[in-house]
Every structure is written in structure tokens, then in C-alpha cells.
Amino acid sequence: MKIHIKRELCIGAATCISLAPKTFELDNEDIAIVKDGDQDTREAIIAAAKSCPTLAIELFEDDGTPIQLS
């Protein structure tokens, strides 16, 4: 799975971090970023993306196919 964060949409609500703390963190501008290393389960990452109030997180399969979050 590939994760893309639309920085211009992120408001730093941090719901992604509460649901997938191994995957997401806030940078020094309070914008979500993807951590390096071990990540949360696929289900947790999808739940985190769905929880974003501005829908700033996009998920893609490894082949580039978008993962539908609705």
C-alpha cells in the first residue's frame, strides 16, 4: 500500500495518529507525515484515512490503483 498526504488539506487534527500511530506523525508544521519503518495494519491505515476530517490522506495499492475510502 502506498500512502499520499495532501499537505495543503491537512489541518493537523491528528485523528490519523490516534488510529495508526506506527504509520503517521505530525511534522514541525503540524502536518501529517508517514513514518519510516514498521506500519500499522492495513485496516488501521484505512480507518485512519477515513477518519481524516479533510480527506487529506489518499491510499493506493502497490500497483497504483486507488483504494476507495467511502
Describe the structure.
The protein has 70 residues and is of the alpha+beta class. The chain has one domain (2-60): 2-Layer Sandwich (Alpha-Beta Plaits), CATH 3.30.70.20. The protein has helices at residues 15-19, 42-51; strands at 2-5, 24-26, 32-34, 57-60. It has a two-stranded antiparallel ribbon. It has a two-stranded antiparallel sheet with strand order 2-3. The protein is globular, with a radius of gyration of 11 Å. The mean pLDDT is 97.
Q: What brief labels describe this structure?
A:
70 residues, two-stranded antiparallel sheet, 2 helices, 4 strands, 21% helix
The helicity comes to 10-25%
| Domain unit count | 1
Distance between the termini: 17 Å
Output the number of helix runs.
2
Principal-axes geometry comes out as globular
Strand content: 15-25%
Order of helices and strands: EHEEHE
CATH topology: Alpha-Beta Plaits
Strand arrangement across the biggest beta sheet: 1-4
Overall average pLDDT: 97
Q: Rg to the nearest angstrom?
A: 11 Å
Query: For this structure, what is the CATH class?
Result: Alpha Beta
CATH A-level architecture:
2-Layer Sandwich
Number of E-state strands: 4
**Main sheet?**
2 strands, antiparallel
Poorly predicted sequence stretches spanning 5 or more consecutive residues: none
Q: Which class of secondary structure composition applies to the elements?
A: alpha+beta
Spell out the blueprint of helices and strands.
Blueprint: E1 2-5, H1 15-19, E2 24-26, E3 32-34, H2 42-51, E4 57-60
Antiparallel strand pairs: 1-4, 2-3
